[in-house]
Structures are given as C-alpha cells and as structure tokens.
Amino acid sequence: MSAELSAFFRPHFHRQIDSTNSEARRLAATDAAEGALVVAEEQTAGRGSRGRSWSSPAGNLYLSLLLRPDCAPAAAGQLSFVAALALADAVEAWLPQGPRPRLKWPNDVLVDGRKLAGILLESAMHAGRVDWVAVGIGVNLASHPEGATWPATSLAALGARIEPAAALATLARALEARYRQWRAEGFAPIRADWLARTLGQGETVTVALGREQVTGRFDDVDGEGALVLALPDGRRRRIASGDVFFARAA
Ligand code: BT5
Description:
By secondary structure, the protein is of the alpha+beta class. It folds into two domains: about 10-195, BirA Bifunctional Protein, domain 2 (2-Layer Sandwich), CATH 3.30.930; about 205-245, SH3 type barrels (Roll), CATH 2.30.30.100. It has five helices and twelve strands. It has helices at about 20-30, 75, 80-95, 165-185, 185-195; strands at about 10-15, 35-45, 60-65, 100-105, 110, 115-125, 130-140, 205-210, 210-220, 225-230, 235-240, 245. α4 crosses α5. The radius of gyration is 17 Å and the shape is globular. The N and C termini lie far apart (about 35 Å). The protein binds biotinyl-5-AMP (BT5). Biotinyl-5-AMP binds near residues 62 and 136.
C-alpha cells in the first residue's frame, strides 16, 4: 500500500502483522520519533481494550501512530478524543450524505448506532511525563464482524467503497490537523467538538467497570476526558474508563 502523506508521517507499511499497536510499541523502544505510522493490510492479533480482540481481515484499515506529546500523564487520555474526532472528520468526508458519525464515550465511532471504528491508546511514562503514545485505529472499510458485543458496521455496508490507501490519506490528514489543534489550543476545543457529536448526553446510561456497573445520567466529560455521571442519589461520579450502554437503543 502507498498513500500520499504529509512530512509529519514516517510510514511503515506491512502486508500482515500481529498488531500495529504492538509494532508501534516496538518502534518506541528503538527511540522512533513522533510521526512513525504503522499501517498493515491485515492483523493476526489485532487488539481491542481490556484484552479483547479486534477482527482484522484484509480490506479494512489498521494503523497506529506514534506520538511524543511530552505532556503530563493525566493529559494523555485526551488524545483518544483527538483521535475520535479526527475519525469523525474522516467519516464525514467518506459519507458525504446520509447518517452522521456519532461518538460514544470514550472513543467509539458509531454510524446508525453501529460501530464503524475503534481506537486503542497505549502509552508509557518516563520521569513523570508521557514518553510515547500509540494511537491505534481500526476502521471497517470493506467488512465488519457479526455478533460483536456492540453491533458493527462498515463503510461498504453503508454504501461507500473506499480503498485502504485512500482511507489512510484522509484519516492521516484529519489526525494531523486535530493533533496540531490540540497542541496549539489545548483540550477545550477538542472537548467541545467531541461533545457536539456525542451520543447519550443528558440520558441515563449504564457503565460497566470490570465487575461493577454504575447507572446514572451522562452529564458531562471533564477537562481530563473522564465521564461525569449524575447518580440517582444526587452525587456525581467521575469515571476514567469503562464501557457505556444506553438505556434506549442508540
Ligand atoms: C476497540 O476496542 O474498539 C479498539 C480497537 C482498536 C483496533 C486497532 S486496529 C489498529 C490497532 N492495532 C491493534 O491491535 N488495535 C488497534 P473495544 O472497545 O475493546 O472493542 C472490542 C470489541 O469490539 C470486541 O470484543 C468485539 O465485540 C468488537 N469487535 C471486534 N472487532 C470488531 C470490528 N472490526 N468492528 C467492530 N467491532 C469489533
């Protein structure tokens, strides 16, 4: 695969790999610079969050971008909102008409209530600062799995045929633009644009946190990207990571 990419990116293309995030982690260990971009046509061990797997047959897009934002650890999670928003920008370009992409906290991209893309952020710290962040993104272009926990979709199923190289060019542009915006202006405009596209704000949601489940009204996302729930007893609870389910169908 080859794609037109700006000078910000140093691409590493693979026909097949275990996981682009694992490769980004290996590159980070060899002191690769920010902008290293691992792209694979197919993954044999694509990963979701919390040990889940990501279905990764050929025909879809799998990439991981290595960033070195030199920020405090608490700010690193903001990059998953940067990535989700960039994906939404790209999906708007791929689907100029019809259903709009919507964002589900923390970083799923849904179209028609179905999951089109997933994001996996991994990072390492050094001396109290963020050393590197790998932003892993999978986009279902040609196919999507049936029977996933959350119903899935693909651009093909939505009527758009986009080749991986063309999808990569669009998404890379959007990622670079949103990352530069975050660096220059901070989290506030990212958070505002993300909230404008989110699903379920003001509604009752249930968040699965490992063995515990919390139900409350989705009030806000705070300055660090945590979900803020208003609980039935009037307390507010801040949640840093978990899986959100809506009371009504999305
Ligand atoms: C995610 O996890 O949504 C993050 C996925 C990140 C994948 C990219 S691909 C490039 C890079 N390299 C990697 O190894 N990973 C990243 P999570 O929210 O945990 O969702 C995983 C769950 O979604 C699974 O348990 C399935 O139920 C479902 N699923 C698996 N494959 C899917 C797919 N292709 N499309 C939609 N849903 C899927």
